[in-house]
Input
Amino acid sequence: MKIVIPGGTGQVGQILARYFHQQGHHVTVLSRRPHAAPWRVILWDGVTLGPWIEELDRCDVCINLAGKSVNCRYTPANRRSIFESRVRSTEILNQAIAAIEQPPSVWLNASTATIYRHALDRPMDEATGEIGGDELGAPDTWNFSIQVGKAWEEAFFSKPTPVTRKIALRSAMTLSPDRGGVFDVFLGLVRHGLGGTTLPGNQYVSWIHEADFIRAVEFLIERQDITGAVNLASPNPLPNGDFMYILRQAWGTRIGLPTARWMLEIGTFLLRTESELILKSRQVVPGRLLNAGFKFQYPGWPEASCDLVTRWRARREEMHSSRQ
Output
């Protein structure tokens, strides 16, 4: 297959580009900052049409992951960049696909599981999940993330693409041992002594192992009957207290002091990220994937966390060895 991945230089993009390249597919990444890679990397600005449009013509699959990382402080400048980089890149891809002679047969566009409301009471699937944004007392950062998700999907589905099937990937946190990824942030809290239960501890964590993320993307490419929004998440979200306890066990740290919100705010500030990652309850489940017969390799957090910790340590040792 010929696969084009706009925004394929981030954590998730590199996971997919690396995998599809290793499988022998022709991979092209569209990036604002082209760099050397085992696959083709072409310049685009994510805003205007340009020579990059030729990459989409006659390709089989477009997987748009463009957008500034949300693993940052939500300053006004970062908020604007987070919002515009997602919405404007999706809008320009709609224009490009409408303009080319042979558009891709399927377009998978990143979205976010954070689009659902703060949920302690029940799971959120695609059929019955409630889109957030109206919860009383929700922090401003939570509502901002929901607004981004809504605008992102609206830009995606706003233009009809008669020959291109569209799927919005409402992905939970994709966990891999890559440096700077979401798992690296969680493990960093454990390693720096902030790996206890984040009070109150009953807020749910939704996640997906990188292997299942890849397999789900492949599954959705092949299943021509699936369109619309699809949740990419493990079928077993779990409360923060359990999530952190299992991660401490996988790391080998049995004792973890509870972390009050003010302590977490300090810790995440020092790590240059946002506390929303830890405090918002995401009880998202993959209803459409399960109903379509998808089988998870890592459905539970205990086995997934052990695999990720083992591989994180191996990569760190490899990095240390290469520096010597």
Q: What stands out?
A: The chain has a mean pLDDT of 88.
